[in-house]
Each structure stands twice: as C-alpha cells, then as structure tokens.
Prior knowledge:
Blueprint: E1 7-11, H1 15-25, E2 29-36, E3 39-45, E4 53-57, H2 67-79, E5 85-88, H3 92-101, E6 105-112, E7 117-123, E8 129-135
Parallel strand pairs: 1-4, 5-8
Antiparallel strand pairs: 2-3, 3-4, 6-7, 7-8
Amino acid sequence: MDLKLRQCFIAVDDHDKALIFYRDVLGLQVRNDVGFEGMRWVTVGSPLQPDVEIVLEPPAANPDASPDDKEAMARLLAKGVLRGVIFTTADCDALFARVREHGADVVQEPMDQPYGVRDCAFRDPAGNLLRFMERSEA
C-alpha cells in the first residue's frame, strides 16, 4: 500500500491563543484559516513537511454532535485528557528552552528514555499534550 499521513486534528478552545503557540512559539506555518457556521478551523504545518498538516479545530466540530456531546468534549479538553501530537526535533533541549521561555505548561523536562530518544512534553494553551523527541545517534 502507498499510504502517507496528510492531516491530523487537535481540538482547541481558543484559536488565537493556539496560533500564538503553534505559529509564534513552535514556528509552524499557517496554511489555512477558515470560518464556517460560527466555527473556525486553522491549519498549520512544518515548513519541513509541506504535505502534512495539523488542523486546529473546535471541540466537537462535528455538526451532528448533540449539545450534550459538545459539552462533554469541551469538559474533556479542559481537563487535558484528549490526545495530542508527537513531534521530532534535532535539539530537544533547545526546543524545550524556547517553549518554556514562552510560558507553556511543562509536563516533562528533557530526559533520555530507555527506548532511544530524548524527549520532553508540554501542554498547549487548550491543554493538549504535545511531546517533542530527539532520536539518539545510536
């Protein structure tokens, strides 16, 4: 099979705060910013991966979601229990210093893992867990 990842989705409750984090702190490019029926989707991506995009979407963006489902999604997002994304970087420590300097919520400082990576973790402004890993040379 010839499969490649094209898009993944991260729920955010404030697109302007998310943009400051993903664009200004992480350096991702804004590729699209769309409003429709009172909702907003912002697409960002790494300049190093022009064919992969992260869509920052409202929680429960599905128009068929019931009001109860939308409320439940908003509560889960507020708790920080929705899944996030794992990024790779050439320098985990430098990335950690930059993101921490901008006030992001630190979950884990850089550390060497027994499975061959050095990684750290933060929460984005909406509470999503983001991990950043640097592969070891070995």
